[in-house]
Every structure is written in C-alpha cells, then in structure tokens.
Amino acid sequence: MIAATLAAWAVGDLTVPPAVDEAALRHLLDGCGTAVAAVRLDAATPALTVAAGLGGPPEATILGTRTRVGAPAAALADGTLVHALDFDDTHAGGLVHATAVVLPAALAVGEQVGASGREVLDAAIVGYEVACRVAAAAPHGFHRRGLHATMVAGVFASAAITARLTGLDAATTTDALGIAGSQAGGLLAFLGTGASTKQLHPGLAAQSGILAARLAAAGASGPATVFDGPYGVYDTLADGPVDPALVVEGLGERWETTAIGIKPWPTCQLAHATMAAAQDALRNAGVAGSRVASVLAWVHPDSASVVCDPDRDLARPASPYAAKFSLPWSVAALLIDGRVGTDTYAPQALDRDDVRRLASHVTWEVDTGAPGVAADAAGEVVLCLDDGTRVAGHVAHSPGTGGAPLDADALDAKLRGNAGPLAPALADAIRGLPHADGVGELLEAAARAADDRSPTPHSLEVPA
User: Which H or E run contains 298?
Assistant: First the structure.
C-alpha cells in the first residue's frame, strides 16, 4: 500500500542532502516573509480572529504575533497568512503551494513538542515531499475537478509532519494519512465570486492534518487504501492521467523540495509566463507601456482554463482574488505600471480605467501542443503598439520556477519588501534553524518584523 510505504519513510531515519536543506530553508524564508506581509497588511484578519477565539492550551504562537493558542488553531492562522497575498511558492508539477501547508504544521507542532530546529527542518522536508508528490501524481487533476490541489495534498503533508514530530510509529502514521484523506477538498468556486475561501485552504489543510494525526494517536483508524483506492483520493477527487505510484517512487533519492518555485509576483502562478513574456516584449520595443494597444498571447491549456476563463469578466474582475486569476488584468497592470506588487490588487485598484481598457484588448490562443506542466510553461506574446508596430516577447520558463529560479538577491529583495526593516534578523533566524534549540528565535523575529505596519506600495515589489 502506498500510504504504508509513505508513512514508514515519513517517520523513519532521514538523510537529507545539503541541497535539499538549502532549498527547504529558502522556502521557509519565503513563506515567513509572505506571512509577515499579510500581518502587516491585515490581509488575514478573519483567520487570526477565529484562531485566537479557538484558544486551547498555549502550545504554539501565531506567526507574526505573540498570541499563543492550540497548535491546530495556530496552523489555521499561519496557513492563511502564508497564502493570503497569493505571493507564496508553487511546485509546478503538482500546482501546489507547498510552504503554505508545510510551514504552519512544522512550526506549530514543533513549538508544541519543543523540537529542535533540525527536527523541525527535517519534518518540513518530509512535508514538502509529501505535498508535492501527492499533487504531482495527478498533474492538474484536482483542479480539473474544481478542487484546490494545495488543500487536497496539504492535509497529507500536515499529517506526516505531525506524525514525525510527535513520534508516531509507521502504522499509526498510516492511519493518520487515511484520516487526512477524508478531509481533503477545497473548492475553486471562489474564482467566479468575491469570496476569500482560497486564502483559507492551506490553513484548513494544516489544521486538519494535525487533527488527523492526533485522532490516529488516540486510536482512530484510517483506510490504508487512501491513495490506492477504491474510493481513494485519486479515484474520487482527480480527473485525467493519474499515477499514484509516483507518490513513493524514489523516496529519499529524488527530492521534489528542490523543484519548488518562488513567485516574483503576488498573483496566480499560471499567469506568470505570459506576464514575463509581455515584459520581455516591452523591453524589446523600448517604449512605455502606455504605447501598447493590444496583446496576443499563446497560453497552455491548463493555464487558460484557470486564468482565461471566458465565463468571467476578466477586464473587470469582481474582487482582488478574481484579478489575481485574470491573465488579461495582470498583464495589463504589468505593462502599464512596469511592476506588479501587492498594491496592484488592492480593492481600489480594480477601478482603474487604464488597466481595464488594456485588459479588454488582451486576447489569447490556447496552445494545445504546449509541452510540460502549465506552471512551468514557456510564455509567448505579441504586443501591438499604438502605431501598428508588432513586437514579440518570449520566456522559456515561468519566472521563479525550477527552470528559471529567483537568485539570492531577488529572494532577499522579496523578503525585505514583505518583512520590512527587520527582514535581516528574520532571515538569520531561519537560516540558523538547523543549529537552533527550537523555533523561539524565529517566532520572535517574525513578531518583531510584523510590528512594523508602515509598508509603502513599492515596498512589496520584487524585481522579476
């Protein structure tokens, strides 16, 4: 059974190559930055309010605050914070926001049990592997069924992290994974409305995974067939090609943690390749974005179904989240402003006539022959200028992904924008995690950074 094999690996001895440690620390750093930015911008207030109200024994600290609650409640808040701005990382193969579910479980349960920094990092790496592998075994398959892969795969990652940190054996961890499967979900219904449910999905997944492991530890059982079926997660929740064996293939030898990308822009990953290609074309043209009259893009089919949905008004998005999932809106904003930051998607920005006007002239063709996965696809556009000149733009990979990763300077710039003046102290605390006694220094650094509530619109910009 796949769950039994995965469970045995998740709680067993772990030998982590240095490159995997480095990748995990990069992503924990990026995730802490996006969470602190969300605190500074009050972007996840409902989740923080509910987490504080749930209370519980003071096991864990809500990231970016000094509020201590039960570990499940802290994970609910932290997962929402990491994902609230849609600025967190993406594993292209699984189209899953891995850190948004891994970081909350690792920090909350790690603090709860007094784990060392090394133990927390090892548990996070287990979580990254589980989340990415579960999602990538059905590439875009959960999204085709109208589900958010981050929540579907995230419950398993959180359960595995909790099992490792609380010392569960392989059999009990198998039960935890089985129980977690009954909590997998996350509807994409928010796309056509102003709802904020997508923000909540990673928090709900992290919380549910912790509860699944606790239930298993208390004697509840879960189906060991949760991945194999019948009626398992792939049978029930995925559409299209599925290969469940990929979940455990090469465990400990092939590391998906190193294949996670870091976003340069706080918007849907599936628009990034086209945005970068448009940016390239504008550079080639050597003119201001105000000179662009129209844009034609070639888009991967799996991207088009999410960010080019013709059933929505893509030039007049209904909410900030709808704008983040509108390729025309995001491309137009990038061309006109020369940048995209969190302020691009502020509610008041949705009424901009200049962006609406250009967005209404962004068209696309679905590239049915596009190779590979959508989140790491190439980008291809042609800009038509106001004098009729046509200029092409191209990128080989979506920026920030495994094919075109952000360099160290860009990652630090993003962290400074998100976490403010005290970002260096936060970075030091995270990079020192392998040698730390626990997560206390990291949590205090995040709280201090979040205390600064005076970001400027440009402070959250990152160069692509």
Answer: strand 292-299
Q: Token digits for 40?
A: 């500074």
Q: Is 249 left (phi over 0), alpha (psi -120 to 50) or beta?
A: beta
pLDDT band with cut points at 50, 70 and 90 for residue 304: very high
The chain-wide mean pLDDT, for the chain, equals 94
**Cα–Cα distance between 40 and 100 in angstroms, integer?**
17
CA distance 68 to 138: 37
Per-residue pLDDT tens digits for 81-92: 999 999 999 999
Nearest to 287 by CA among 387, 397, 399: 387
**CA–CA gap between residue 287 and residue 294 (Å, rounded):** 14
The answer, yes or no, to whether residue 219 has pLDDT greater than 70, is yes
**pLDDT-based confidence at 454, cuts 50/70/90?**
low
The span from the CA of 411 to the CA of 409, in Å, is: 5
Positive or negative torsion for Cα 78, 190, 143, 272: negative
Q: Read off the pLDDT of each residue in 249-265 and give the average, rounded to a whole number.
A: 95
Is 70 exceeded by the pLDDT of residue 247?
Answer: yes
User: HSE on the CB side for 317, CA within 13 Å?
Assistant: 31
Amino acid letter for position 13: D
Helix (H, G, I), strand (E, B) or coil at 309: coil
pTM given for the model = 0.94
pLDDT in tens, 390-427: 999 999 988 888 777 888 888 999 999 999 999 999 99
Residue 446: strand, helix, or coil: helix
- From the list 336, 319, 321, 320, the residue with the least C-alpha distance to 275 is 336
Give every CB contact of residue 277 below 8 A, 6+ residues apart in sequence.
Answer: 297, 378, 379, 380, 381, 393, 394, 395
First to last CA, the chain: 43
Q: How far apart are CA 281 and CA 439, in angstroms?
A: 45
Neighbours of 152 (CB within 10 A): 30
Domains and CATH numbers, the chain: 2-261 (1.10.4100.10), 269-395 (3.30.1330.120)
Distance CA 178, CA 225 (A): 7
Alpha helices in 182-300 (DSSP H): 197-217, 233-237, 272-285
Q: For residue 205, what are its two tokens?
A: 């997944």
- Look up tokens 């990291």; give the residue: 442
Q: What digits encode the pLDDT tens for the residues 42-74? A: 999 999 999 999 999 999 999 999 999 999 999
Supply 39's token pair: 């605190």
The closest of 54, 53, 55, 59 to 71, measured between CA atoms, is 59
